[in-house]
Amino acid sequence: MKEIKSGDITVFDYEGSGSPLLFVHAFPMNNKMWNEQVNEFKSKYRVITYDIRGFGKSKDSFENIYTMETFANDVLELIVKLELKNVNICGLSMGGYIVQRAVLKAPEKFSSMILADSKAERDDDKGMISRSRFIDRLMKEGIGNFPDEFMKRLLYEKNYQNPGLYKFIKDVINEQTAKSLAGASIAMATRTSTTEQLKGLELPVLLMVGEQDTFSPIPNTERMHKLIKNSVMKIVPESGHLTPIENPKIFNKYLSEFLSQNSI
Fold first, then answer.
1. Are 256 and 19 in contact (CB under 8 A)?
2. Mean pLDDT over residues 251-256, rounded?
3. Could you give the C-alpha distances from 157 to 35, 149, 154, in angstroms and in order?
4. 141-173 burial, b for 16+ CB within 10 Å, e for fewer?
5. Side-chain half-sphere exposure of 106, counting CA atoms within 13 A
6. How far apart are CA 176 and CA 169, in angstroms?
7. pLDDT tens digits for 39-84?
8. 9-13 and 46-50: which strand pairing?
């Protein structure tokens, strides 16, 4: 594995010989959330992960003033830096928002898109107020008890009771800074809807969602499935919002089947 800098972004290139497979992590995680996918796919594809601006090992030259366009542009610059073509790109939740904007801005760079536990709609007023309150709390109190509180909604109940899984996710969240979490929250609150643009997308798309996801529940994915003409939808059992971590066996199975049919 090579650790590469693309501007402020730290990239992890596993140097496989196959088609590029780029993973974009969720909020409030970093590249480590894709460990199970890296192990599964690095022998068949050129697997690449990275830390979103301000997260993990990636720098913060923007002083935590982010938009979703900032994040999408980082992806496109990374692709140019690594001279990638026909990229298969996979994002979960916030990573899915980033992936959608990157693909819609430059569809010619991609051969397929995978969205997990994500949605096309922007926040409604209630969601924006909730994010504002969260940002205020981060700025006043820091991360504090946020990881423990967050995981009560984040995970399927059975997985929430798994101490090893719980510790792994909590440790990753605690690696982030309060300012970066606040900056990413502003980016999510101010993102645009992609519903109209997705209707014209020609790429093959895989949509996955945890059967017990409360952040991006199944109806959100069903709506995207109706919007995107060349899409397939899969429900990941015994999973909440973090499907690739909660049920990696099934997640990887669905992803492998999709890529075998659609990767160039």
1. no
2. 98
3. 22, 14, 9
4. eebeebbeebbeebbbeebbeeeebbeebeebb
5. 20
6. 12
7. 999 999 999 999 999 999 998 887 878 999 999 999 999 999 999 9
8. antiparallel
CA atoms lying within 13 Å on the CB side of residue 72:
20
Report the amino acid identity of residue 39.
N
Crossing angle for the helix pair 68-81 and 178-189, to the nearest 10 degrees: 100
pTM over 0.90: yes
Q: In what order do the strands lie in the sheet with 87-92?
A: 2-6, 9-13, 46-50, 20-24, 87-92, 110-116, 205-210, 231-236
